[in-house]
Design goal:
Blueprint: H1 7-26, E1 45-50, H2 55-70, E2 73-78, E3 97-99, H3 106-116, E4 121-125, H4 132-135, H5 142-150, E5 155-158, E6 171-176, H6 183-193, E7 199-206, H7 208-221, H8 229-239, H9 241-254, E8 257-264, E9 282-288, H10 292-304, E10 309-314
Parallel strand pairs: 1-2, 1-4, 2-3, 4-5, 6-7, 6-9, 7-8, 9-10
Antiparallel strand pairs: 5-10
Helix pairs in contact: 1-7, 3-5, 6-9
Length: 315
């Protein structure tokens, strides 16, 4: 049989057609229209999952900063799997409620504890249950993979064992590539968590491969068309124009500083540009679980980020 009639070819072709359609849609955005305000979201109940690693101290610092500013309730769960082992609860969390963990995998313990306690935000070390140096900087670990797939509430992953200078929420950077159904929810959480005197940046990132797909799609329709990366950047900005205006309004109402930037993937990694190692911004990512590209973007960003990472997801 012809390879063009095989199920694998048909599936691949459908994905290509889908990607091209998404790329073309970017160029049809021209007007902002009416903009619904971004309503900031803040957690009232924060669960901190402990694994006994050096990153527990950072998790505790983040939770303590939230409690001090938002007066939220804190709870901790020792989700380690080693029989008979208990972790030392960091001093900022010793007054928090201590939840009993079930006898199961770490990710199941965290999922159950978050649901039973009605947590609105979960803070967890990444990788969980393994030393950061042992598992390597390029891995998130199984626990984080499962939590990203199953937790209904936002997740903050503490990605490196450092003690942040000042408030973690004084600088937030929300990174988007293309359209994303979770973008608005992520913006609401970013606007709610940023310190009233802090700075929030919406960074739109243009990936090299994405640009090539758009250029090929446009030229297949208009062979003589010249598609530049500048035109793609403009289209990307228009795609998120409503989000941008909504965040401007939220910044004006909340008192924090806000800015929009566009970066190309070929440039220096956006995580480290002018970011002091002792005080990197909290990275904010939008996870659209039904979109494989969004999944790949979030997992890649977490693996490569020296920052704490806030992930806000929608199914």
């Amino acid at each position: 049989p012809s390879p063009h009639s095989s199920p694998m070819f048909e599936q691949t072709q459908r994905q290509v057609d889908h990607d091209i359609q998404q790329s073309m849609d970017l160029f049809r955005r021209a007007k902002v229209g009416s903009v619904s305000p971004i309503q900031p979201l803040v957690p009232k109940r924060v669960l901190v999952a402990l694994d006994g690693s050096a990153q527990d101290e950072l998790s505790a610092a983040i939770a303590n900063q939230l409690q001090a500013r938002l007066n939220c309730e804190l709870a901790v769960v020792d989700a380690t799997e080693t029989s008979g082992r208990t972790v030392d609860i960091p001093e900022p969390l010793q007054a928090a409620s201590s939840l009993d963990a079930i006898d199961d995998d770490s990710y199941e313990q965290i999922v159950v504890a978050a649901a039973d306690w009605n947590a609105e935000l979960v803070i967890v070390p990444c990788p969980f249950g393994r030393d950061f140096e042992t598992i390597g900087a390029d891995s998130t670990g199984t626990v984080i993979d499962v939590l990203l797939a199953r937790l209904p509430m936002p997740l903050i992953a503490t990605r490196a064992p450092f003690d942040p200078a000042g408030d973690v929420f004084s600088r937030l950077r929300m990174v988007l590539t293309g359209e994303n159904e979770a973008a608005r929810a992520a913006a609401q959480w970013a606007a709610g968590l940023v310190h009233p005197e802090g700075h929030l940046e919406l960074m739109l990132e243009v990936e090299g491969e994405f640009f090539e797909n758009v250029r090929e799609a446009m030229q297949s329709v208009h062979p003589d068309a010249e598609v530049s990366i500048e035109s793609l950047e403009s289209a990307l900005a228009k795609t998120h124009a409503r989000l941008h205006v909504g965040l401007q309004q939220a910044a004006a109402a909340g008192g924090f500083d806000y800015g929009l930037s566009i970066h190309r993937q070929s440039e220096a990694e956006p995580f480290t540009v002018n970011d002091p190692a002792a005080h990197p911004p909290l990275l904010v990512l939008a996870l659209e679980r039904a979109d494989s590209a969004s999944q790949g973007h979030v997992h890649s960003r977490i693996r490569r980020s020296p920052h704490p990472v806030l992930v806000v997801s929608v199914d």
